[in-house]
Amino acid sequence: MVQTKDELFLGIRQYQTNQRKIEYLEGEIKKGMPTEVKILALSLMAELHKNMKWYNTAAKNYNIAADLAATFREKIDLYFKSGVMFLQVGEYFHADDNFRKVVVLATSEQKQVFQEKINNLYLQQAQNYEKARHYTKAIKAYTRALALKIPMQTILEIYDKLSFLYEKIGNPREAAQMKEHRDSIIKAEEERQKNLIDAE
Q1: What is the pLDDT of residues 92-143, one digit of tens each?
Q2: How many CB atoms lie within 10 A of CB 73?
Q3: How far apart are CA 20 and CA 103, in angstroms?
Q4: Cα(20)–Cα(30) distance, rounded to whole angstroms?
Q5: Domain range holding 44?
Q6: Are 11 and 81 contained in the same domain?
Q7: What is the CATH number of the domain that holds 118?
Q8: Which residue has the higher pLDDT, 160 or 189?
Q9: How many structural domains does the chain have?
Q10: Of 169, 173, 145, which is closest to residue 159 (Cα–Cα)?
Protein backbone atom coordinates (compact mmCIF):
# COMPACT_ATOMS: atom_id res chain seq x y z
CA MET A 1 0.00 0.00 0.00
CA VAL A 2 1.44 3.36 -1.10
CA GLN A 3 1.78 5.89 1.74
CA THR A 4 3.93 8.69 0.26
CA LYS A 5 4.23 10.64 -3.00
CA ASP A 6 7.75 9.26 -3.51
CA GLU A 7 6.44 5.68 -3.27
CA LEU A 8 3.75 6.52 -5.82
CA PHE A 9 6.33 7.93 -8.28
CA LEU A 10 8.55 4.87 -7.77
CA GLY A 11 5.62 2.55 -8.41
CA ILE A 12 4.44 4.30 -11.58
CA ARG A 13 7.96 4.27 -13.08
CA GLN A 14 7.76 0.46 -13.36
CA TYR A 15 5.24 0.75 -16.20
CA GLN A 16 5.86 1.87 -19.77
CA THR A 17 2.42 2.48 -21.30
CA ASN A 18 -0.19 5.03 -20.24
CA GLN A 19 -2.76 2.26 -19.88
CA ARG A 20 -0.59 0.21 -17.50
CA LYS A 21 0.20 3.36 -15.47
CA ILE A 22 -3.51 4.12 -15.16
CA GLU A 23 -4.24 0.54 -14.04
CA TYR A 24 -1.49 0.82 -11.41
CA LEU A 25 -2.86 4.13 -10.09
CA GLU A 26 -6.44 2.82 -10.02
CA GLY A 27 -5.29 -0.24 -8.07
CA GLU A 28 -3.39 1.81 -5.52
CA ILE A 29 -6.30 4.22 -5.02
CA LYS A 30 -8.61 1.25 -4.32
CA LYS A 31 -6.20 -0.05 -1.65
CA GLY A 32 -6.39 3.29 0.15
CA MET A 33 -3.80 6.02 0.68
CA PRO A 34 -3.39 9.36 2.48
CA THR A 35 -5.45 12.20 0.99
CA GLU A 36 -2.49 14.23 -0.38
CA VAL A 37 -1.15 11.09 -2.12
CA LYS A 38 -4.63 10.34 -3.51
CA ILE A 39 -4.85 13.88 -4.94
CA LEU A 40 -1.51 13.30 -6.70
CA ALA A 41 -2.64 9.87 -7.99
CA LEU A 42 -5.88 11.34 -9.37
CA SER A 43 -3.99 14.25 -10.97
CA LEU A 44 -1.50 11.85 -12.60
CA MET A 45 -4.38 9.72 -13.90
CA ALA A 46 -6.05 12.84 -15.27
CA GLU A 47 -2.83 13.80 -17.11
CA LEU A 48 -2.53 10.30 -18.58
CA HIS A 49 -6.17 10.35 -19.71
CA LYS A 50 -5.62 13.81 -21.21
CA ASN A 51 -2.60 12.51 -23.18
CA MET A 52 -4.83 9.71 -24.51
CA LYS A 53 -7.50 12.31 -25.42
CA TRP A 54 -9.95 10.83 -22.91
CA TYR A 55 -10.91 14.33 -21.85
CA ASN A 56 -14.14 13.42 -20.06
CA THR A 57 -12.37 10.92 -17.78
CA ALA A 58 -9.51 13.37 -17.23
CA ALA A 59 -12.03 16.04 -16.20
CA LYS A 60 -13.69 13.71 -13.70
CA ASN A 61 -10.36 12.78 -12.09
CA TYR A 62 -9.33 16.44 -11.79
CA ASN A 63 -12.75 17.13 -10.27
CA ILE A 64 -12.45 14.43 -7.61
CA ALA A 65 -8.92 15.64 -6.79
CA ALA A 66 -10.19 19.23 -6.48
CA ASP A 67 -12.94 18.15 -4.07
CA LEU A 68 -10.28 16.47 -1.88
CA ALA A 69 -7.77 19.35 -2.01
CA ALA A 70 -7.23 21.29 1.20
CA THR A 71 -6.07 24.70 -0.09
CA PHE A 72 -7.96 27.20 -2.24
CA ARG A 73 -4.95 27.48 -4.54
CA GLU A 74 -4.91 23.73 -5.23
CA LYS A 75 -8.70 23.60 -5.62
CA ILE A 76 -8.63 26.51 -8.12
CA ASP A 77 -5.90 24.82 -10.19
CA LEU A 78 -7.68 21.45 -10.31
CA TYR A 79 -11.19 22.83 -10.93
CA PHE A 80 -9.79 24.98 -13.74
CA LYS A 81 -8.10 21.95 -15.35
CA SER A 82 -11.34 19.99 -14.98
CA GLY A 83 -13.30 22.80 -16.65
CA VAL A 84 -10.86 22.90 -19.57
CA MET A 85 -11.21 19.14 -20.09
CA PHE A 86 -15.03 19.28 -19.97
CA LEU A 87 -14.91 22.15 -22.46
CA GLN A 88 -12.82 20.00 -24.84
CA VAL A 89 -15.74 17.57 -25.17
CA GLY A 90 -18.45 20.24 -25.28
CA GLU A 91 -19.78 19.42 -21.80
CA TYR A 92 -20.73 23.05 -21.14
CA PHE A 93 -22.85 22.40 -18.04
CA HIS A 94 -19.97 20.65 -16.25
CA ALA A 95 -17.39 23.12 -17.58
CA ASP A 96 -19.52 26.03 -16.31
CA ASP A 97 -19.86 24.37 -12.91
CA ASN A 98 -16.08 23.99 -12.52
CA PHE A 99 -15.28 27.47 -13.83
CA ARG A 100 -17.88 28.95 -11.46
CA LYS A 101 -16.09 27.25 -8.56
CA VAL A 102 -12.78 28.74 -9.75
CA VAL A 103 -14.20 32.28 -9.77
CA VAL A 104 -15.87 31.83 -6.36
CA LEU A 105 -12.65 30.53 -4.76
CA ALA A 106 -10.39 33.11 -6.42
CA THR A 107 -9.28 36.24 -4.57
CA SER A 108 -10.86 39.52 -5.66
CA GLU A 109 -7.67 40.36 -7.63
CA GLN A 110 -7.75 36.98 -9.41
CA LYS A 111 -11.46 36.94 -10.32
CA GLN A 112 -11.17 39.25 -13.35
CA VAL A 113 -8.08 37.41 -14.65
CA PHE A 114 -9.79 34.03 -14.40
CA GLN A 115 -13.02 35.37 -15.96
CA GLU A 116 -11.05 36.65 -18.97
CA LYS A 117 -9.22 33.30 -19.29
CA ILE A 118 -12.53 31.43 -19.17
CA ASN A 119 -14.11 33.75 -21.76
CA ASN A 120 -11.13 33.23 -24.08
CA LEU A 121 -11.37 29.44 -23.69
CA TYR A 122 -15.04 29.42 -24.75
CA LEU A 123 -14.39 31.71 -27.71
CA GLN A 124 -11.34 29.68 -28.76
CA GLN A 125 -13.41 26.49 -28.61
CA ALA A 126 -16.06 28.03 -30.87
CA GLN A 127 -13.41 29.27 -33.33
CA ASN A 128 -11.76 25.83 -33.42
CA TYR A 129 -15.08 24.19 -34.28
CA GLU A 130 -15.65 26.80 -36.98
CA LYS A 131 -12.19 26.25 -38.52
CA ALA A 132 -12.76 22.48 -38.48
CA ARG A 133 -16.13 23.10 -40.24
CA HIS A 134 -18.09 21.60 -37.37
CA TYR A 135 -20.67 24.33 -37.84
CA THR A 136 -23.39 22.94 -35.55
CA LYS A 137 -20.88 22.57 -32.70
CA ALA A 138 -19.56 26.07 -33.42
CA ILE A 139 -23.10 27.47 -33.20
CA LYS A 140 -23.59 25.77 -29.84
CA ALA A 141 -20.24 27.09 -28.56
CA TYR A 142 -20.81 30.68 -29.75
CA THR A 143 -24.34 30.64 -28.30
CA ARG A 144 -22.89 29.50 -24.96
CA ALA A 145 -20.29 32.28 -25.14
CA LEU A 146 -23.09 34.88 -25.34
CA ALA A 147 -24.01 34.02 -21.73
CA LEU A 148 -20.54 35.09 -20.54
CA LYS A 149 -19.52 38.52 -19.29
CA ILE A 150 -17.95 39.70 -22.54
CA PRO A 151 -17.49 43.13 -24.16
CA MET A 152 -20.23 44.57 -26.38
CA GLN A 153 -18.00 44.44 -29.48
CA THR A 154 -17.41 40.71 -28.94
CA ILE A 155 -21.17 40.11 -28.56
CA LEU A 156 -21.80 41.86 -31.90
CA GLU A 157 -19.04 39.80 -33.56
CA ILE A 158 -20.59 36.58 -32.19
CA TYR A 159 -23.98 37.48 -33.67
CA ASP A 160 -22.26 38.05 -37.02
CA LYS A 161 -20.58 34.65 -36.70
CA LEU A 162 -23.86 32.96 -35.79
CA SER A 163 -25.61 34.53 -38.76
CA PHE A 164 -22.84 33.28 -41.06
CA LEU A 165 -22.88 29.78 -39.51
CA TYR A 166 -26.66 29.43 -39.75
CA GLU A 167 -26.36 30.32 -43.44
CA LYS A 168 -23.67 27.63 -43.77
CA ILE A 169 -25.95 24.91 -42.38
CA GLY A 170 -28.86 26.04 -44.55
CA ASN A 171 -30.96 27.83 -41.96
CA PRO A 172 -31.57 31.34 -43.39
CA ARG A 173 -34.40 32.09 -40.93
CA GLU A 174 -32.10 31.70 -37.90
CA ALA A 175 -29.39 33.63 -39.77
CA ALA A 176 -31.80 36.54 -40.23
CA GLN A 177 -32.79 36.40 -36.55
CA MET A 178 -29.13 36.69 -35.53
CA LYS A 179 -28.80 39.82 -37.69
CA GLU A 180 -31.95 41.23 -36.08
CA HIS A 181 -30.55 40.57 -32.59
CA ARG A 182 -27.33 42.30 -33.56
CA ASP A 183 -29.15 45.31 -35.02
CA SER A 184 -31.42 45.62 -31.95
CA ILE A 185 -28.36 45.61 -29.65
CA ILE A 186 -26.70 48.36 -31.73
CA LYS A 187 -29.93 50.40 -31.70
CA ALA A 188 -30.34 49.99 -27.91
CA GLU A 189 -26.71 51.04 -27.37
CA GLU A 190 -27.16 54.10 -29.60
CA GLU A 191 -30.28 55.06 -27.61
CA ARG A 192 -28.38 54.61 -24.34
CA GLN A 193 -25.54 56.84 -25.56
CA LYS A 194 -28.01 59.47 -26.77
CA ASN A 195 -29.79 59.48 -23.39
CA LEU A 196 -26.46 59.91 -21.60
CA ILE A 197 -25.62 62.93 -23.75
CA ASP A 198 -29.12 64.42 -23.23
CA ALA A 199 -28.79 63.91 -19.46
CA GLU A 200 -25.64 66.03 -19.44
Answers
A1: 999 999 999 999 999 999 999 999 999 999 999 999 999 999 999 999 999 9
A2: 13
A3: 36
A4: 15
A5: 1-106
A6: yes
A7: 1.25.40.10
A8: 160
A9: 2
A10: 145
